[in-house]
Specification:
single chain; binds 1,3,4-trihydroxy-5-OXO-cyclohexanecarboxylic acid; alpha/beta
Length: 148
């Protein structure tokens, strides 16, 4: 059966393109989603997109992904550094999640160095800007054994 993935973006990522372009680049979330849709087509998989500025809505989306999707690419934005609830939701769903950040969080302010979700995800991709999303799709497919 065709694999299905969810690309879930958290707070302030709806503002990509105009938000601190020196840090996050000028690519909009719409551009990223279009590139990921084209990549999904090439990989022969289904992809869905969601974005919310609300912690609970992100948790609801993770819960809903269980049984609907085979894996999730999650840019939890600043909730990465604060949310034990999102970490628990990832653990609860037992879905493979790739943690994604456009910026290299380890090269930025100290408070961004710690990720509450890093210990419960398959792996982390950060520092590659918008290119990180298609990279994460390849990583997730490899993890799901669909890279051959
Ligand atoms: C981010 C990094 C976070 O520290 C920040 O709060 C974001 C975006 C990134 O994609 O680089 O909102 O997740």
């Amino acid at each position: 059966m065709k694999k299905s993935i969810l690309i879930l973006n958290g707070p302030n990522l709806n503002l990509l393109g105009t938000r601190q372009p020196e840090v996050y680049g000028t690519t909009t979330l719409q551009d990223i989603e279009a590139a990921c849709a084209a990549k999904a087509e090439a990989l022969g998989i289904s992809v869905s997109f969601a974005q919310s500025n609300h912690e609970g809505a992100l948790i609801d989306a993770l819960h809903a992904a269980k049984g609907t999707h085979d894996g999730v690419i999650l840019n939890a934005g600043a909730y990465t550094h604060t949310s034990i609830a999102i970490r628990d939701a990832i653990s609860a769903t037992m879905l493979p999640v790739i943690e994604l950040h456009l910026s290299n969080i380890h090269a930025r302010e100290k408070f961004r160095h710690h990720s509450h979700i890093a210990a419960v995800v398959v792996g982390q991709i950060c520092g590659f800007g918008a290119h990180g999303y298609p990279l994460a799709m390849d990583a997730l497919m490899a993890h799901l054994g669909e890279d051959k």
